[in-house]
């Protein structure tokens, strides 16, 4: 029986690099993988981007409200027009990898669990544990509840300790209000901090 | 800087035994520990009970609505009547251990985090990850979000695989409705199952 | 395919308690386990003793020079005189647990690996990582090389940090010479220390 | 107190990628790292090469017979001619990372331990656990004995299970004789296998 893994980490901990390396390892051994990410990722594209410079397109998006297991099954079977046109053989899928898994809906995480347990395909879900207010994202929460294995991807705080939280910044200011999802861009950016530095910038504020 | 650890496992995975062994290890080296559990643990007593036969009383309960950090500080300082009467010296606390941590309130878990980070006392929180419907308990959820380290205590399913879920049973029947907390007794009991056996008894039902 | 696990820790980290809890978990679910330890354990007895107060006899010893896999197979099949006399049914073995695994011979560790991989029985080997000179024991070394999974059982140093080394003491003196195995007794005892405290008492001496 | 980490994995498990990502994480936060590898790495160059396509030069080699701690101290202090010529400021080193750590001498691993414990600089050592005969390399062995934390970097076997061993191949043939180190090239290559596939190709042969 295959398992559902949740590989979680703070922002900029190397999640996409880890995913791309894992995909490479499978393919180097002649095995087929499928890469996916939630359609609600407001970055709006289909790329998996490593800060080390590598990029790769996902095989499919998982739109809001959709069944991740049905979409997976269709792609695993090769029922996509491109493959059919090319008469591509469709070997079994050795692994499904999902980036930005924090943005999945809880029911879609349940789907990933069924893909692992019922379809016997290992699922590696990479994602952020909590938002800038230290609350789990919907997808992260469900993964923390039901994943067979929780594996932390570590990164460091500016002080050298392990970073576990993400602070949202607008310019130099740290903000604690706003929507859960505000993609980093010109104004908004995120800094991963350890517990001590987080409590310092938050004035002791955590979830409460 | 000390850390907050969440050692989670399915029911009957040996959490209380692990806690008692950890306490023993500290005390054997001449160090002082404090043991606590939530007051809302409806077993209604102050004992930490290992199925291997060991029992020990907690040093304090954490009642609903209370500040875990204040109660801890008072006990760490030796402000309890028994200690004062005995003129007991109060060495610093080397570790705080919390059993049944799934029943803590989220704000009390935030307190545990502050005890670790601000008071520099390691906190070992032992608890169950999810209820009989595979949903996190309030305390577990907050621990999954903010603990510095998540460590799984393993146990096995009747089929030999690793158990990750807890099913509620009334006699032989598996039930999926009812309050989140129903302490096991004559009628109600729990069985820890792996993902495959859980989906079998639930007819494919998970959270969704 | 089952796996060989090496659960290692410094002395007095709760290895035997962990083993007894794991055995209890299996048996509580109606599954059969076998407990073993090396015959060369110079404590000379057949007991697994937890410092928390529990004791249990092993099902068999693994004498020096013997094949651990053959002995296991005989006991798994119920070919021991006691069982035959009692006409005991012999259900399959769900798990083999080995205490004091650091004293196994390397070839016996290879046997444990084959029991896991070829006989499909999970093997939990509990043992100490290194001797009082920070050198692996023969059994530990082989387990560190080939176990599928290495899991640390933690305990603490007198300073509160994680202990990883074992110092040998004769009375209050710390000694760095002598046989690798000198069972603790009236004169000789061991103290688990962190790296910092070890380097302090050793005057900076490690393996070199 | 800083720690010595051994991140071990079978060949082609992504060790160099992991190292480069970890270095990137530190530097992105404005912190200084040093990268090193043993001089005896018979690849004979000073590059850290990820199969994903990234390459980076080490800051220094650790030649056979040398003191890793002295070389580290000199580079940390900026006593290298290039830096002096450029009047480069030398901020403290936040992390030392060592690739191909299996080729270190045991005394050099002891040096890494002292760098962590006495100089308070975290050391990340990446390396292979065992050779093609399932025996630890000298550096791996010492790291398995004394590293504060052992972390496995996973990869997969051709069968889809976790690979833990490395087989040496000359063309299609699997060989079990020869020097411990034979760098892969035109004739010699390595395949990472799980325990089951290894025992199959070795005819049941392991270390014994």
UniProtKB/TrEMBL annotation, chains A, B, C, D:
Name the active site residues. 100
Which GO CC annotations does the UniProt entry carry?
A: cytosol
Which Gene3D superfamilies does this chain map to? P-loop containing nucleotide triphosphate hydrolases
Superkingdom classification of source: Bacteria
Query: Which Pfam families does this one have?
Result: TK
EC main class here is transferase
Picking any one GO biological process from the record gives: thymidine metabolic process
State whether keyword Transferase applies.
Answer: yes
Q: Detail which positions bind substrate.
A: 190
Q: Spell out the reaction equation it catalyses.
A: thymidine + ATP = dTMP + ADP + H(+)
Q: Supply the InterPro entries for this chain.
A: P-loop_NTPase (IPR027417), Thymidine_kinase (IPR001267)
Q: What is its EC number?
A: 2.7.1.21
Sorted UniProt keywords: ATP-binding, DNA synthesis, Kinase, Nucleotide-binding, Transferase
Named from the GO MF annotations, one term is: ATP binding
Q: Which family is this sequence assigned to?
A: Belongs to the thymidine kinase family.
Q: Which PANTHER family match?
A: THYMIDINE KINASE, THYMIDINE KINASE, CYTOSOLIC
Q: What is this protein called?
A: Thymidine kinase
Species in which this protein is naturally found: Arthrobacter oryzae
């Amino acid at each position: 029986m295959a398992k559902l893994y949740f590989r979680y980490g703070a922002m900029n901990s190397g999640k996409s690099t880890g995913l791309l390396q894992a995909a490479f390892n499978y393919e180097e051994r002649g095995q087929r993988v499928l890469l996916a990410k939630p359609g609600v990722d407001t970055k709006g594209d289909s790329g998996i981007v490593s800060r080390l410079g590598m990029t790769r397109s996902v095989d499919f998006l998982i739109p809001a409200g959709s069944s991740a297991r049905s979409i997976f099954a269709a792609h695993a079977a090769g029922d996509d027009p491109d493959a059919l046109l090319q008469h591509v053989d469709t070997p079994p899928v050795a692994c499904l990898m999902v980036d930005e898994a924090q943005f999945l809906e809880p029911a879609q995480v349940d789907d990933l669990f069924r893909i692992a347990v019922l379809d016997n395909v290992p699922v590696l879900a990479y994602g952020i544990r909590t938002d800038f207010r230290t609350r789990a994202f919907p997808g992260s929460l469900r993964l923390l509840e039901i994943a067979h294995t929780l594996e932390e991807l570590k990164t460091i705080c500016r002080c050298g300790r392990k970073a576990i939280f993400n602070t949202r910044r607008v310019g130099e200011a740290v903000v604690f209000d706003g929507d859960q999802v505000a993609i980093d861009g010109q104004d908004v950016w995120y800094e991963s901090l350890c517990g001590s530095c987080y409590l310092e910038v938050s004035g002791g504020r955590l979830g409460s």
